[in-house]
Design brief:
Elements (H helix, E strand, L loop, with lengths): L3 E7 L11 H12 L5 E6 L7 H17 L4 E6 L7 H8 L7 E2 L2 E6 L7 H14 L2 E4 L12 H10 L5 E3 L7 H17 L3 E6 L3 E2 L9 E2 L5 H12 L4 E4 L19 E2 L9 E2 L2 H16 L9 E6 L13 E2 L2 E2 L10 E8 L3 E7 L2 E7 L2 E8 L6 E6 L2 E7 L16 E5 L5
Parallel strand pairs: 1-2, 1-11, 2-3, 3-5, 5-6, 7-8, 8-11
Antiparallel strand pairs: 4-5, 9-10, 12-13, 14-17, 14-23, 15-16, 17-20, 18-19, 18-21, 21-22
Helix pairs in contact: 1-2, 5-6, 6-7, 7-8
Length: 419
């Protein structure tokens, strides 16, 4: 079966807009596959009876994937009311060329299977069994969103008795906690003979104008790297990047139409900041996950991540900044510029801001460094043996009192292939 990497795709919000075309979807498939992603898990909050738009979009995506070819696969992840129509989901997609299959059986997943009703969850697992699919759902354990320890991981494995595996959505948690949950789940599910699909997440921050306005600090790419390493060292079967395009919770890695910010799908999401560096930096870990060995670094590259304003501005977590209020968070959101580097040999990185400069002497390999966040445009200079390898300015300035970034991360990169 082999290691596979997928991305969680919100069918409700295609990057190409409400009327996304086959060509729009193909462009997304290409962006994903170029980074090593094997397919999309199609999150559907409804289906034909409840919200027929979902079924119509999914079938268009399957047509697009067939036209795209190249082995890019799709499978439905039933959410909400879509779980009432598992039979039609299977009937509609099972025979399509782009459908992901394991041992000849169509793969189907789910998010929050059965909601908070364990009996409903069990009944849906039994229904999936009767439909003959390869079922890898996510369901909420008895402890809810809390970190999954050994006993809870064994509970999950037991509840998977009639399913083929389990998908851990993660996302809403601190990276170290999510990584420990992956380790515990991987051990228990392997002991039970079940497939395990772990998750990795770039960053999570709900919409300021919604009911889920909370954030989980990831320290630039550092948190995502921690989750990748947990999946790698736990020998997880599959990984799902959570998410490709959840514009509402800022977990998206999909490239947008700008290297700074853009409005995507609906103005209610605000101006979305570029997250492409999370996707590009993940390419190294995707290769490692699939091959079982850390890839050789053949080119110097670096990726930077920062918020567009100094977060603290002398005030604590959850405080208000004029008319703007910080998201709920268990930890203080960082006031730093974060840089992740992939180096072919020892080098020096200087991070300049205003009249200050932070210098880091770094070894070959992967490194993560920080500098205090200050108003102005961050400047990055990479040198080796007295010669300049790269000079780059951040595409967005850090501002003193502009909160239009809404505590989201902005990301950018230096890659010699893009110069």
């Amino acid at each position: 079966m082999g290691k596979r990497v997928f991305a969680h795709y919100m069918v409700a919000w295609p990057r190409g807009g409400p009327n996304a075309s086959v060509d729009d979807y193909i462009a997304e498939f290409r962006d994903a596959q170029e980074r090593g992603i094997d397919g999309f898990a199609l999150n559907c909050g409804g289906w034909n009876r409840s919200e027929p738009l979902y079924r119509a979009r999914v079938l268009k995506m399957y047509r697009a994937a067939e036209q795209f070819g190249n082995g890019f696969k799709l499978f439905v992840s039933a959410d909400g009311k879509a779980q009432d129509e598992l039979d039609d989901i299977v009937q509609s997609t099972a025979g399509l060329p782009a459908q992901l299959r394991v041992a000849g059986r169509s793969v189907v997943s789910a998010y929050a299977l059965g909601g908070k009703n364990p009996a409903r969850c069990e009944a849906l697992i039994e229904q999936a069994k009767s439909l003959g699919v390869y079922f890898v759902p996510q369901f909420v354990p008895s402890t809810g969103e809390a970190e999954i320890n050994g006993p809870v991981a064994r509970e999950v494995a037991t509840r998977c008795f009639a399913a083929q595996g389990y998908f851990y959505f993660g996302a809403a948690g601190a990276p170290d906690s999510l990584a420990r949950s992956v380790k515990n789940l991987s051990a228990s599910l392997k002991s039970a003979g079940k497939l395990f699909m772990a998750s990795v997440t770039p960053y999570y921050r709900g919409l300021p104008n919604g009911t889920n306005y909370r954030a989980f600090e990831t320290n630039g790419f550092s948190g995502m790297a921690t989750e990748w390493l947990s999946a790698i060292h736990s020998n997880t079967d599959w990984v799902q990047i959570v998410t490709w395009n959840d514009w509402a919770e800022s977990t998206y890695v999909a490239p947008i139409s700008s290297n700074t910010r853009a409005q995507v799908y609906n103005p209610r999401f605000g101006a979305l900041l570029n997250h492409r560096a999370y996707l590009d930096a993940s390419r190294y870990f995707i290769e490692w996950f699939k091959s079982g060995a850390a890839p050789e670094i053949n080119q110097d590259k670096f990726y930077y991540f920062y918020r567009l304003h100094p977060v603290g501005v002398g005030v604590g977590i959850g405080a208000s900044f004029g008319s703007f209020i910080a998201p709920r968070s268990h930890t203080r959101l960082t006031e730093k510029v974060h840089v992740t580097l992939f180096l072919t040999g020892p080098a020096t990185l200087a991070i300049g801001q205003g009249n200050t400069c932070t210098v880091h002497d770094l070894p070959a390999g992967v490194s993560e460094v920080t500098a205090p966040s200050m108003p102005g445009v961050p400047r990055f200079t990479l040198t080796r043996n007295g010669s300049t390898i790269a000079e780059k300015k951040g595409e967005e300035p850090i501002r003193k009192d502009d909160f239009s970034g809404a505590f989201n991360y902005f990301s950018g990169s230096w890659d010699p292939n893009d110069v």
